[in-house]
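Before relying on records like the one below, remember that each one covers exactly one chain. Contacts with other chains, cofactors or solvent are not represented anywhere in the record.
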Amino acid sequence: MAGTSIAKPDTRIGSSAAMKAIILLLRGIGYMVLIGGAVLFLLPVLYMLISSFKDPSKIFIVPMQWIPNPFKPENYIQAMNLAPFKRYFFNSTVISLATMVLNVFFSTLAGYGFAKYQFRGRNFMFTAILGTMMIPFQAIMVPLYIIVRNFGWLNTYTGLVIPWAISAFGVFLMRQFILSIPNELLDAARIDGASEIGIFWHVIIPLCKTPMVTLAIFTFLDQWNNLFWPLIIISRTNMRTVSLGLTEFQTLHGTAYQLLMAGATVATIPVLVLFIFLQRYFIRGVVLSGLKG
């Protein structure tokens, strides 16, 4: 009929619904991939935990026994009695904390200098520091060992801490963050009569708490898990760290896998607790290390 219009279907509604469905599908696939990856990485940890409660005859049976039967928590007591794990934990704690404090302080100080001071060769020195990150430890371990030996630092906390008292990554991380601090804040502090050291303590450090905590976490974890360097310079039992103690434990009690798994589980607990409570700083660390320079 004249004057009558036929309504056309709005194709935009259908396309929008299809797009939402595709997005939901892709998101679901992404979650499945992430869950699968998480399960894949967690399986060895779960195997270690379950095996630490098993009878040694049940560890390698096929198919795997996911619920220990018999359940043997006494494996932990036996493992702790066979090796001085309390001493190992004390050594690792002292070394990790001391290295963490020194690395955070010196890296922040160096990062502040590279970020806010103009001096001849600044860019070259900073590039050279970053270049050391490309050098594998195996290339410097012999000269580093000779230096530590000549100083008489073998089998000492000093020899385990001082070589790692500052890191190229720490200098880079702190420099990148301090670059984002406005120079006007520093100028205002100078006008108020603050010294350069006062500016560092009262302006820079309070504003750098987030990257400092991030660097502290990375440093602590790196030193707690460090095996190669203690293996080179430590020969006394009372100076062994947790990682080195587990290696020696495996050598002495290699067939007692249930005891080895118990010791490894106990050594993992501090790192796991630290990650659970401070995991957000790991993400912040990745973001901060990519700040524009």
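The chain has a mean pLDDT of 85.
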